[in-house]
Design brief:
Elements (H helix, E strand, L loop, with lengths): L1 H20 L22 H55 L3 E5 L8 E8 L10 E11 L10 E7 L7 E3 L5 H16 L9 H5 L1
Antiparallel strand pairs: 1-2, 2-3, 3-4, 4-5
Helix pairs in contact: 2-3
Length: about 210
């Protein structure tokens, strides 16, 4: 197992190094192919300095990228907590009040945690069965984390229903709770006509 882990780390390092070396070029030195073309005289020191400048810039960019990945990973956990709370509130505020209850299931994380999923279960109409079915799904993911990915690391969240699996796609930002609650409310609107109505007397009396 140790050798396998070491091999994986070496592959990650190789990928990161290749990422730094990609695009290093000497085009700005105008090195010609034809010997009779006028060109500036080159020196080893000049070429060394140009390559070093490019590598320094790429290392700086790579450090910024790693910082961005760390931020996204932290936001992933923060947003997961927000989703837990928002879905629990959704069940209490709407499903318990008008549809005879509901429940939230947070699915097991995959081995390499880059996505996290939730299911909300409730009673569907017209059946009077006590079996609850999945009515809303929420998937939170991170993209742009691989060494050779070109895109900026970012969070993405998807809220869906059985008939509209990609009902709402959004990028959680500073107002995560508001974004999640808005998306779940839109999902509720989409499924409202398919849910069994069993309102509590307390909510009707008020």
């Amino acid at each position: 197992m140790g050798e396998t882990g070491g091999d994986a780390k070496r592959e990650d390092w190789d990928a990161a190094l290749n990422r730094l070396l990609e695009g290093v070029n000497l085009d700005d030195l105008q090195i010609p192919l034809a010997s009779d073309t006028a060109r500036p005289r080159l020196t080893f020191s000049l070429v060394h300095d140009r390559v070093a400048d490019q590598l320094r810039e790429k290392i700086r960019t790579e450090r910024m990228r790693r910082d961005a990945i760390a931020i996204v990973r932290r936001q992933f956990e923060e947003c997961s907590f927000v989703i837990d709370q928002a879905l629990a509130s959704f069940v209490v505020t709407l499903l318990d009040a008008f549809h005879g209850g509901g429940e939230v299931r947070r699915l097991p994380d995959p081995r390499e945690v880059r996505t996290r999923s939730w299911q909300v279960l409730a009673h569907r109409a017209p059946t009077r069965s006590d079996v609850r079915e999945v009515v809303v799904t929420v998937t939170l993911g991170m993209r742009g984390l691989d060494a050779l990915d070109r895109g900026q690391p970012a969070l993405e969240c998807r809220v869906g229903t059985p008939r509209n699996p990609r009902l709402v796609d959004f990028v959680p930002a500073t107002e995560m709770r508001a974004d999640v609650e808005d998306a779940v409310c839109r999902a509720y609107q989409d499924i409202l006509g398919t849910l069994r109505f069993d309102p509590s007397a307390t909510d009707l009396s008020s």
